Amino acid sequence: MAVKRSPLAPRRFPALPEIAGLQLATAAGGIKYKERPDVCLMVLDSGSTVAGVLTRSKTASAPVEWCRAQLPHGRARAIIVNSGNANAFTGKSGETSVRRVVETVAGSLGCRPQDVLAASTGVIGQPLPTERIIKTVKGLARKVRPGEWKSAAQAIMTTDTYPKGAARQAEIGGTMVTLAGIAKGSGMIAPDMGTMLAFAFTDARLPAELLQALLREAADKTFNSITVDGDTSTSDTLLFGATGKARHPRVSDPRDPRLADFRLALEDLLRDLAQQVVRDGEGASKFITINVSGAASRGAARRIGLSIGNSPLVKTAIAGEDANWGRIVMAVGKSGERADRDRLSISIGGVRVAEQGEVVPGYDETPVALHMKGSTIEIDVDVGIGRGKATVWTCDLTHGYISINADYRS
Amino acid sequence: MAVKRSPLAPRRFPALPEIAGLQLATAAGGIKYKERPDVCLMVLDSGSTVAGVLTRSKTASAPVEWCRAQLPHGRARAIIVNSGNANAFTGKSGETSVRRVVETVAGSLGCRPQDVLAASTGVIGQPLPTERIIKTVKGLARKVRPGEWKSAAQAIMTTDTYPKGAARQAEIGGTMVTLAGIAKGSGMIAPDMGTMLAFAFTDARLPAELLQALLREAADKTFNSITVDGDTSTSDTLLFGATGKARHPRVSDPRDPRLADFRLALEDLLRDLAQQVVRDGEGASKFITINVSGAASRGAARRIGLSIGNSPLVKTAIAGEDANWGRIVMAVGKSGERADRDRLSISIGGVRVAEQGEVVPGYDETPVALHMKGSTIEIDVDVGIGRGKATVWTCDLTHGYISINADYRS
Known about the structure:
homodimer; alpha+beta; 2 domains
């Protein structure tokens, strides 16, 4: 399959700062891809805390189940990731593979296997080439270095056309802390989960429970508000590690006002990564922002936004640069959420096209048609029921998606 | 847009019998299409009963809302249908249009407007050309004739590539009765509703409440078990009229054993029509049957089947003739229904590919790959939890779907 960089890709991979207490290394294990790194080890100094958001799929992968079992401890010394094979639907042998890989990492770091988290992404249902990964992993612990972000972001890619990374700074009680992360994903991307894989880190010193609360809140507004194709991966994993190297005042209550800036920075970081995932949506030619207001609740607004963002008819219309707002009406109607047909209003590119249940009088499609030709599409929907608001990001559905997915395995 | 007949189409439109007490007529009203019939009038003799299943969309069309208001009476003398314009999201003027059209029909038949049901299908959000339809409708009542099935099926088409019809016979208490119907729909087809438009009739003599119970039951197993793209129309309407001309014993209890044959025939008729809708799915190249068993309930089985049938990744894999069963695992997992990864089994084309949570030992893809090259794909999934069973029908997702929907309006 020809790998053409997404037309919506950022110009370049951003310069990401080192996070004190975090080191990274990658290697080419030959799991599926030839001559490219496909294994990544992330090592955290002892004393680091960790939080995570995992797929709610009932057929979750073996590494997801491993993480689900370990995350309550709130501690991690390492995260081991491979691309090319999801180790999902691989039965007991898949579980054994995870255990053997994390034991190998633990052995080389001198920590407990429970302190090693794991993630895999790629084909479902094929046995993990465990021996090959173990052999690759063995040398990695000696190779870790701070700031190896770009090669890490590359090693976790599958059908991604570019590596994804972002960083932010925030202050906690007058002390600056750093946040940085990487993500991957371009198909099988759907709400209610993290994305396929995303790893974020900070040097802030935050207890695991607090970290989990902050991550869950930020994930709902970011990774859980994007969709490419409505298909939910068996492997969705978002992990957030905190090395505690920054010397800020101790905080432990999620409502502590000194966390306000950090909270914003974390949400901003995850939104950036999540949008990069959407911009690499398989076959995407348009980046679409859907703002829903006037819904019964924030949750209702998000579900309406996702109903629009998941609609094949809305997505193909946008691919065709057709301002077919009737399909947006349809998608609002099928969401199952409360809506009042006669109060619904829709704007595209800032131009009101429909209000009070019908097309605006004297509607001139010219500016809207022009907006549709751009690569960034903005849709505003007011449902006219309440005060719930949410924003959802998605991409269009093109021939590229079909081409990529009709011959992914071959 | 070039209209190429679906490769999954039946050889020809079936010969459908007349239904005593039912007459049909069509005309070209020039609503959207040139030189083809786009208005259809169906006239039932007085004393006929009627039942219906309508879209649950919150942005339902004006004719759907009209039907919702009239159906509780259980009586109908006529159904007036147009294609090319859905009269959806057209505000108060859309309601006025329906009222004026049904009043015109009622006037020409000498019945009450409440006895005239209406359905529209086509573009959403454009005002109905009411005057043109009224003018067309005026002459229609004089033109109705028994057995005009094929032109009726043609008049209700939009992006359909062939007209759809079916008929069955059944006996009630030793007397033969006839059932026949037509349907349309090829995109914006999703579960939990009727299809876009389907009209079935019988000469049986059945009270409206009984008719409604039988229709609801059959619709759940047929029209509510198909999906093309997961998008739910604002116009979905399934109406079933009974003229009462057949001289069978009186029945009124849905549990009456004398209804057994009729019940089977109705389900069979609707399944035939629903499958014809799937076979005309936009861009479809494969007809897919998904049998789910071992689920917690029948409803759970259907939701799992629809999760598979709606998955863009499953549908594109099938378009690519790729037996990528890992995506079926994913779709089961995302359905939200109870499933046990380690008990899940999957067969494709009758060949077991995965069981007990992993690929079958020594799996040989050859016969499965051959099956994928055919135009009829069979998928069996056993969830391993309970005894709930359901069958869902869908089609693949191809470049054709994108081409049709990226330039539908232009």
